[in-house]
Amino acid sequence: MTKIQPDPSFSLDILPPEISTKLHKQIKGEVLVDAASRGRYATDASIYQQFPIAVVVPKSTDDIAIALEVARNAGIPVLPRGGGTSQCGQTTGTAMVIDNSKYIRNVLHSDLSDPDHATVEVEPGMVLDHLNAQLKKHGLWYPVDVSTAAQATIGGMAGNNSCGSRSIAYGNMVHNVLGIDAWLADGKLASFGSYTQSNGEAKVLGDFVKGLVDSLKPEIEAHWPKVMRRVAGYNLDVFHPQSELPYTLDNSVNLAHLLVGSEGTLAYFKSLKLKLARLPKHKFLGEVNFASFYQAMDSAQHIVKLGPTAVELVDRTMIDLSRNNPAFRKTIETALVDAQAKTVDAILLVEFSGDEHAPLLQKLDDLDALMSDLGLPGSVVKMPDSSMQKNLWEVRKAGLNIMMSLKGDGKPVSFIEDCAVPLEHLANYTQALTEVFSKHGTRGTWYAHASVGTLHVRPILDMRRDGALKMRAIAEEAAELVRKYKGAFSGEHGDGLCRGEWISWQFGPKITQALAQIKERFDPTNLFNPGKIVNPPKMDDSRYFRFPPDYQVIHVEPKLDWSNWNVQNNPVTEVITAAGTGGDPAQGLSKAIEMCNNNGHCRKFDADVMCPSYRITRNEKDLTRGRANTLRLAISGQLSKAQHDAPAHLPLASQAVKEVMGLCVSCKGCKRECPTGVDMAKMKIEFLAQYKERFGHTLRDRLVAYLPKYAPIISSIPGLPALLNLRNRLPIIAKVQEWFTGISAKRSLPEWQAKHFWNQGSLPFVSPEELSKADKRVVLFADTFNSYFENENLQAALTLLKKSGYAIHVAQPSPTSKSRPFCCGRTYLAAGMVEDAKERLSALIDHLAPYANKGIVIVGLEPSCLFTLRDEALTMGLGQPAQVVSEHAFLLEEFLSQELQAKRFSLAFKESRQPILVHGHCHQKAFAAVSPTLELLKLIPNANPQLIESSCCGMAGSFGYEVEHIEASKQMAELSLLPTIRNHPDALVVADGTSCRHQIADGAKRDAVHIAKVLESHIY
Ligand SMILES: Cc1cc2nc3c(=O)[nH]c(=O)nc-3n(C[C@H](O)[C@H](O)[C@H](O)COP(=O)(O)OP(=O)(O)OC[C@H]3O[C@@H](n4cnc5c(N)ncnc54)[C@H](O)[C@@H]3O)c2cc1C
Ligand code: SF4
Ligand code: SF4
Q: How high is the pLDDT of residue 12?
C-alpha cells in the first residue's frame, strides 16, 4: 500500500486541477485552494506553520464523506480541524484541511430526562460555550471547561483530550466522552463505545489494541505516568488502567477513549456522545495568600484533599500586573488579606461548588483551618459573592493577556507549558524549572492548574534567533525533571509537532512501536494527519516554523507611525527598547501584524464586540486572525504572485488583502478584546492608504472623505440642503446616486439641516488663558456629523454644560481666520487618505493643545470622532501636542461622570416616563467608555438604564451605506441589537453614534437619541 508522506516539502503542495474540479463539483460547502486561503489555515496557536494543500469547509457530513474519498483516491492526507486553537502544531499539515467549525455543529440527540445520567450527541464542530449555553436552561453543562471554551470545538477537544480548570472534579475529555462515530481510513463508518457491546470494525480494532496491550503490561506499568494529566500518545491504558482517575466509573473499557487524544491521526469523528454534569448552584472561592511561591506549590497537595472543584494559581507577576492597572487594582485587592501588603508572592484560588450554601461555607472554614495547620493562619480571603468571583477570574484572564501582549520578537513560547507532576513534587519541580529558565537567560510566569500539578509557564524565546536552541535545551532539562518526579511531559495540550518526539522518551521503544502498530492498523495509508504522534519530526525542525531562520519582511515605508511596535524586549525583565529600535524593515508594521499568535479568541460570540464580521459569516477570512495571517503572509512575501501582485513598496495593496479587509468594520473590538491587542482597525487604514495609492480613490471615497470640506459650502447655499434631502424622498434620485457612487438606495442618508450648528449665531471664542480662570471649564469639540445633521445634540450639550455652570469654549478657528470648522480627520482615514487626515487633525490639535496644556478637558459627542483624538492622532507623528490632547479628550458622559464623582456636577433630573436601553458605540466599548453613560442615565429617576448586549451595529461609518455591504451591515445589526430593541417597544433607546442611530432608525424604525439630548430633556 502506498504511504502518504508527511514531509513539509511533500511534492503535492498544490492541488492538481482535476482534483480541485472534482471537489468543486461534488462539495456543496466551500473548497479553498488559493494561497491566501490555504495560508489562513497554515497555523494554529503554536509556533509552527505548514501550508495545507486545500481547505474544505463542508456544509454537511455528506461533504466530509466525499472529501475523504477524493483525498484517499488522490493520495492526499486529511487534517480535521475545529477552532484551530491547538498549541503544539497538531492542527497544521501539508494536507487537505477539513474545517468542521462553520457548519458541522449541530446537536444530534440529547437525553436530559435524568440529570444524573444526561447525555448529548453533537457534531464535531460544535463549540463548547455554544453547547453549554443550550444546556444551561436544563441545569446541566459539559464540564471540560477549557480556557478556550468560546472557540474550542468538541471534535478538537476530543482530538486533543483537552482538560479544563475543573478537571480535578470532572476529569479530562477522556473521562467525559461516551461514544464516537467516526469515518475510518477506508471511508467506512464505525461506532466506538463500550468494548463489550462493540461489533464490526470497531471491535476488530479494539481487539487488536487489546492484544498489543496484553503483551505490554509490564512496559505500561513501568513507563506510564501515574498522573491524571497525561495526554501523550494513544490511550493504551484503556485496557490496563493507569490514570489516577479511572476513565469509566466501573473501570469498563470504552473504545471511544482510544480515539480521544488521537489528534486526527486514527479516524475522522462524525459525532460524539458526551456525558453531562449538573450545573452546581453555588460556587464559593477561597483565596489563599502566600509569601512564598514554593509554599504555595507545596500546599496544593493538602488543599486538594478538601475536595475543591478548582485550585488555580496566580503568581507574583500577575498580582503586580493587576495592581499596577487602575482597572484591576480594586479587584485584585479583594483577593489579598492585606490590600497594602507587598509581600504576597502567590495566590491559590480555591473553588468549592455545590447546591447548598452551608456545606460550602464549611469548606471555606476547613480551608482556613488547614492553612493554620500548615503554619499560615489568617491567609485565606473568603469570597462567597459570585460577582466578586467573576471579577477575579476576569483579572486573572486579563493579567495573562497582558503577558501575552509583550512587544518585540521574544514571545512567551508554549512547549513545556503543561508538564504534569504529582502534587507532592510540584514545589520542587517548579523551583528547579525556574532555575533552568534563569540559566538560559529567560523567565516564565506561572499560572493555572495547581490542583492537578499542571502549571502553565512560557519562557520568553526569540524563535527567529536563538529561540530554537534554547527551546531544545530547556525542554531537555525540563524532561529530566519530569522524569525525576515521575510526571507526564505532555499533560494538557497534546503532542503535535512540539511534543511528538517526546513520546518515545516518555514511553520507551516498545510502547512507541505499539503506537505505530495502532496507527498502521487504523490507517494503513497514513491518510489521517501524518507525522503527528507516530513518526513525528523533531520539535525544533525549523522547516515547520512560522518564523523560520529565512523569514523575511518586505521593506516598506508605512503610512502610519508603527514605531511603538518596532522594539525588542528583555526576556527576563520584559523591559522593551525604545520605540523604533526593533530593526523591523517595515518600521513596526510587520511586528504589529505578527502580534497575532493565532489563539483564536476572536472567534468568540459573547457579549463583547470582536469580531462582528466573523459573527455573521463564520469565515476564517472575515476573522481578525484570518486578516492578521493574510497581512503577515503578504508582508513577508509568502503569497503567490498570481494572487498577491502588490508592488514592492506597497506590499498590502493586493486583491488578497482587499478580500479580507472588505468586511472589517474598523470597530476596534480587537484592539481591546484580542489578548495581544491586534489593532486591525488601524491596519485597515494602512491597507486602504496603500491600496488607494495604487488604485486611486473612487467617487464614493471622495464623497465620504471630503464631507467636512463641502458640508460648510452646502450648508451656506440657501435651499441646497432641502434640495439634497429630496434624495431620501425620491427613490429615483437614490437609485441614480447608487449607480454613480455605490451608496445604497436602500439606505436613507443623514438629512442636511438648514439651521446647523455653525449658523446659529456666533459662539464666543474663549482663549485658553481666559478659560483657565473659570473654576468649571471645558472645551466642546463640535464634529461634522452633529454640526450639520444633528445640531440639536450639540445644543443639548451646550445647555447641559451651561446649566451645570461650566465656562465653555467651542473649538473653532480664531474669529479672524476664514478657515472651515475643525474636523478630526475620521472621514479621510476611512478612505485611506492619511495625509489629508493628518492635515486636518494637525490643525485641530494645534488649536486644542494650548487648552489641554492648561489642564482643560475637551469633550466630544460623536465617539468615532472623539476617540480619533485618543487613538489615531497618536500614530501620525504629531508629537507631544497630540499626546497632551489625547490625555484630555473625553466623551461628554465620561467627563460628566468624572465631575459627578468629584462632586462638581449635580443637576437634578425629572423622572423618566420610559425605561432606557443603551447601545454602546463600538469605539466607546473599545475605550471602556460605556459605563459612564449608564452611570449618568441612572441619575434620571425611573430610567433603569440597561445596556444592550450587542457587538458593532454594523453601520460603521460609511460601511453600512455601501451597496456591496448593506446586507452584511443589516446582518450585524440583526445579531442582537435590533431584535433587543424590537423586544422593548416602550423603551427609549440611547445611542451616541450617528451611524448607530441610523441603523436603528432604518432597521427597527425607532428614533434613537444621543445621551446629551436625553439628559438635557430631563433637567428639572
Ligand atoms: C490561550 C489558550 C488557552 C488554552 N487553554 C486550554 C485549556 O485550558 N485546556 C486544554 O486542554 N487546552 C487548552 N488550549 C488548547 C486548545 O485550545 C484545546 O486543545 C482545544 O480543545 C482545541 O480545540 P479546537 O477546536 O481548536 O481544536 P483544533 O486545534 O482545531 O484541533 C485539535 C486536534 O483535534 C483534531 N480534530 C479536530 N476535529 C476532529 C475530528 N472531527 N475528528 C478527528 N480529529 C479531529 C485535529 O486534527 C487536531 O489534531 C488552549 C489554547 C490556547 C491558545
Ligand atoms: S487576532 Fe488576537 S484574538 Fe485573534 S487569534 Fe490573533 S491574537 Fe488571538
Ligand atoms: S476591527 Fe472589528 S471587524 Fe475589524 S477585525 Fe477587529 S473586531 Fe473584526
A: 57
Sign of the alpha-carbon torsion through 687, 973, 826, 737: positive
* Phi, psi of 918, rounded to the nearest 5 degrees: -115, 130
pLDDT-derived band of residue 944, with 50, 70 and 90 as boundaries? very high
Task: Read off the pLDDT of residues 524-541 as tens digits, 9 standing for 90 and up.
Answer: 999 999 999 999 999 999
What are the backbone dihedrals phi and psi of residue 194, each rounded to the nearest 5 degrees, phi first? -55, 130
Cβ of residue 604 lying under 6 Å from some atom of ligand 2: no
Does the Cβ of 536 fall within 6 Å of ligand 1?
no
Burial of 995 (C-beta count, 10 Å sphere; 0-12/13-18/19+): buried
| Ligand with minimal distance to 151 CA | 1
pLDDT at 395: 81
Cα–Cα distance between 523 and 186 in angstroms, integer? 8
pLDDT confidence band for 13 (50 / 70 / 90): low
The residues, ordered by sequence, that sit 6+ positions from 875 with a Cβ below 8 Å of its Cβ are 560, 561, 562, 682
- pLDDT for the residue numbered 154: 98
Query: Looking up cell 500546599, which residue turns up?
Result: 299
The rounded distance, in Å, linking the Cα atoms of 851 and 628 is: 39
Whether the predicted model's global pTM rises above the 0.90 cut: yes
Whether ligand 2 lies within 6 angstroms of the CB of 105 is answered as: no
Going by C-alpha positions, the residue among 996, 859, 845 that lies closest to residue 919 is: 996
- Rounded to the nearest whole angstrom, what is the distance from the C-alpha of residue 600 to the centroid of ligand 2? 5
Which three cell numbers mark 146?
477549557
Can you say whether residue 529 is alpha, beta or left, with left for phi > 0 and alpha for psi between -120 and 50 degrees?
left
Q: Which residues of 383-411 are buried (b: 16+ CB within 10 A; e: fewer)?
A: bbeeeebebbbebbebbbbbbbebbbbbb
Distance (Å) from CA 834 to ligand 2 centroid: 26
User: What number does the ligand 1 atom closest to the CA of 82 have?
Assistant: 30
Mutate which of 565, 597, 609 for ligand 2? The one with the most ligand atoms within 8 Å of its CB, which is 597
By CB atoms closer than 10 A (0-12, 13-18, 19+), residue 652 is: buried
The mean of the pLDDT values for the chain is: 94
Q: Is 670 in the pocket of ligand 3 (CB under 6 A)?
A: yes
What's the CA angle centered on 146, arms 143 and 147, to 5 degrees? 135
Helix 834-853 vs helix 879-888: angle between axes, to the nearest 10 degrees?
Answer: 70
Distance 494 CA to ligand 1 centre (A): 8
Computed from CA positions of residues 549, 554, 556, 562, in that sequence, does the dihedral angle turn out positive or negative?
negative
168-222 tens-digit pLDDT: 999 999 999 999 999 999 999 999 999 999 999 999 999 999 999 999 999 999 9
DSSP 764: P
Nearest to 263 by CA among 623, 515, 617: 515
124 lines ligand 1 (CB under 6 A): yes
Cβ partners under 8 Å of residue 757, min gap 6: 782, 786, 787, 788, 791, 794, 795
Q: Whose CA is nearest to atom 6 of ligand 2?
A: 596
Length of the chain: 1020
CA of 681 to the centre of ligand 3 (A): 6
- Cα(53) to centroid of ligand 3, in Å? 28
Q: Which atom of ligand 2 is nearest to the CA of 623?
A: 4
- Give the three cell numbers for residue 836: 489629508
d(CA 81, CA 86): 10
Nearest CA owner, ligand 3 atom 6: 670
Report how far residue 750's alpha carbon sits from residue 756's, in angstroms, rounded to the nearest whole number.
Answer: 13
Q: Is the CB of 597 under 6 A from ligand 2?
A: yes
- Ligand 2 pocket member 601 (CB < 6 A): yes
Residue whose CB lies within 8 A of the most ligand 2 atoms, among 604, 678, 679, 684, for a mutation test: 678
- H/E/C letters for each residue in 108-134? EEEECCCHHHCEEEECCCCEHHHHHHH
Closest listed ligand to the CA of 592: 2
How far apart CA 203 and CA 209 sit, in angstroms, is 10
